[in-house]
């Protein structure tokens, strides 16, 4: 089964994820993807035989709108999205990736150059394994963005991505994930 079909099959086990995808598509946010932990952790759960939602803290919904970088504009989208997802048994965290450079350094201690797209934001995750996003296109087709492929996700390999996030962020996430998925192979940060 090709990688994207295998991913879709794995993600389809998580009913909450599928519902978030369908509702997110109706929001019609520019350049949106459902991304990060909810995607790769759903796969890990399938591979390891755990319940689909095991260990998933939230569902990250990224979009990219550089037209208005104010907090107020993003907050309006967050509020509208909160109403759309209110009855789901999960937290959906909606963020405009065009604004990340405005707060990243304060939160993580290193500057973040402005992103040019949601894909560019996904490219900067602390582990290449995490660099994956999915969305439903208007025609109902799935769009998968996985610049490093999908093999590491299905093989339970966590590989560092020293593009932006500091080593401490990678190691903290890796330690937490290893507690929840002890089968993970965590590769070391490059020297």
Cα distance spanning the termini: 36 Å
Major sheet description: 5 strands, mixed
What portion of the residues fall into strands of 2 or more residues?
A: 5-15%
How many domains make up the 3D coordinates? Answer: 1
Mean of pLDDT: 95
> SSE order, as H and E?
HHEHEHEHHEEHEHE
Summed up, the helix count is 8
Strand order, largest beta sheet: 3-2-1-4-5
Name the helicity range.
40-55%
Contiguous low-pLDDT stretches (5 residues minimum) are none
Global structural class: alpha/beta
Shape: globular
Question: Count the strands?
Answer: 7
What is the rounded Rg? 16 Å
Write the layout of secondary structure elements.
Blueprint lengths: L2 H9 L3 H13 L5 E3 L1 H12 L10 E5 L7 H15 L6 E5 L7 H5 L9 H6 L9 E4 L5 E4 L5 H5 L1 E2 L8 H14 L4 E2 L5
Parallel strand pairs: 2-3, 6-7
Antiparallel strand pairs: 1-2, 1-4, 4-5
Write up what this structure looks like.
This protein is of the alpha/beta class and 191 residues long. 41% of the residues lie in helices and 13% in strands. The chain has eight helices and seven strands; from the N terminus they run ααβαβαβααββαβαβ. The chain has a five-stranded mixed beta sheet. It has a two-stranded parallel ribbon with strand order 6-7.
């Amino acid at each position: 089964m090709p990688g994207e079909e295998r991913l879709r099959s794995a993600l389809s086990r998580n009913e909450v994820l599928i519902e978030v995808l369908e509702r997110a598509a109706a929001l019609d946010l520019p350049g949106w993807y459902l991304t990060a932990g909810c995607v790769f952790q759903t796969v890990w759960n399938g591979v390891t035989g755990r319940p689909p939602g095991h260990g998933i803290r939230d569902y990250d919904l990224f979009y990219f709108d550089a037209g208005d970088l104010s907090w107020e504009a993003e907050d309006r989208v967050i509020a509208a999205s909160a109403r759309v997802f209110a009855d789901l048994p999960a937290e959906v965290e909606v963020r405009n990736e065009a604004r990340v450079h405005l707060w990243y350094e304060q939160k993580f201690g290193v500057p973040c150059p402005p992103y040019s797209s949601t894909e560019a934001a996904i490219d900067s995750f602390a582990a290449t394994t995490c660099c994956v996003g999915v969305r439903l296109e208007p025609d109902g087709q799935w769009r998968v963005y996985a610049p490093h492929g999908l093999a590491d996700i299905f093989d339970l390999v966590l590989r560092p991505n020293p593009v932006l996030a500091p080593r401490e962020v990678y190691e903290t996430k890796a330690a937490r994930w290893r507690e929840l998925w002890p089968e993970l192979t965590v590769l070391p940060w490059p020297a």
